[in-house]
Amino acid sequence: MVDAAPLPRRTIAIISHPDAGKSTLTEALALHADAISEAGAVHGKGHRRATVSDWMEMEKARGISISSAALQFEYRGHLINLVDTPGHADFSEDTYRVLSAVDSAVMLVDAARGLEPQTLKLFQVCAQRGLPVLTVINKWDRPGLDALELLDEIEREIGLTPTPLTWPVGIAGVFEGVLDRRSGELVRYTRTAGGATRAPEEHVRPEDARAHLRDHAGPMAAEAWDEAAEADALLRADGADHDLDSYLAAVTTPVLFASALLNFAVAQLLDTLVDLAPAPQPTPDVDGRLRATDADFSALVFKVQSGMDAAHRDRLAYARICSGTFERGMSVTHAATKRAFSTKYAQVVFGRERTSVERAYPGDIIGLVNARSLRVGDTIYTGQPVSYPPIATFAPEHFATATVTDASRWKQFRRGIEQLDQEGVVQVLRSEARGDHAPVLAAVGPMQFEVAAARMSDEYGAPVRLESLAYTVARRVPADQVDAVAGLRDVEVLHRADGSALALFMDRWRLQSVQRQHPELILEALPAGA
Ligand code: G4P
Question: What interface predicted TM-score (ipTM) does this complex get?
């Protein structure tokens, strides 16, 4: 039997600051498309339904989504994989790692707040990876900043040239519709009760737009059209028109104006993803050789999570398919150990509700159950061997020692700490001076400590005492300089499980003074979050 060709894929993540509207937009996207499976990408807030992925008690109490999940839906003959970036004020490494699993990002900006810190941090990771970024200015139904001001801010802060695909008709708070800059048409939206259903759209030819607005929305709206047309001409003169190659090369960022809450411009976003966002591309391996998407199966593990289901202490490894076709039950090779690995229990849906996946293609995210040997950054494959570059670990900024509170639980403590290190829940640092009983946990955001402490007591029955250390900056130290750095005042050198050494400094000033006094020392900054 010959299978029908798989639908083309678009694998994306939304990057934003908390409250910019990511959950609202995610729901709106799923509403417009045919959601095939629904996962925990949407977190429970207010009246909205609770997420299915809030698997920890702590998570429920806070109403946030700690675990990454993915949502897959079909739109215009394409399958869109929306990989969730856990979005709360505190960062964890998970948020960054998700960006290793996508082909492009949607940067969601609150029209009243402009670019905010978390968005900028996430953008830096996109920039490092060369990911194309599409910008959505959200909440245009509410008073906000001036549209041109927002574009200036984007250009200034992130260095991408904004190329608006649409221009709002009406200032923020008076959202009459948009001028589609490529067709010249007016696109008008109609409010529906609570934005609960797909907002009807009306397309009006450019020559009729002004009269249409005057007749249906009054003279102010007709004036707003004139202003939008002026802005359009200005942008054109400025060279701010969309260019596909520049977007794909991460030089420009196409911009849409939207209201996720009212479902305005959500269909345009979906159309843009289908028309412009990149499909999965050949993936470079550790040696820089490209593995074509139609080569033998291969996938990159970007997240490992355990204890999702209290009834079954399982461990899920999430992998993004880079090449070939995945078929459930197929035996794959784990590149790190060269061992065979059965995929009998692969799943597509994350969170509590899961369904088995029979077949998946490049760009899709699969969850592998009880994949005990798989770690973040690992490659699995069939046929021609391949190893993808490891996922960068990020510079920790928070440090705490962990000790077991009940000495009789020492064995469980040791096992738990090792497990959390492997999963990348926290980084674990050790030194001879501190000994095995008080390893140092290092994190990008302090919430990682809470997750670690909760898991140590719930899963391993080994409650821990955490004591913060006053360090805030970490630098990598080459092996032959460890002794020299360790001898410095106020600097501590610790080792990761992989043997690499990190020097910890109280703050940037101490680091700078060490660099000034010892220019011969190589203190290497770690990627993002540093
Ligand atoms: P997040 O996931 O990025 O944190 O944001 P979320 O979607 O939860 O949205 C944050 C708040 O912003 C919510 O209000 C939401 O209703 C509102 N919001 C999102 N998109 C829009 C929009 O396009 N226009 C307007 N006017 N508001 C928007 P809330 O009051 O905090 O929560 P809720 O009780 O409404 O759920």
Answer: 0.97
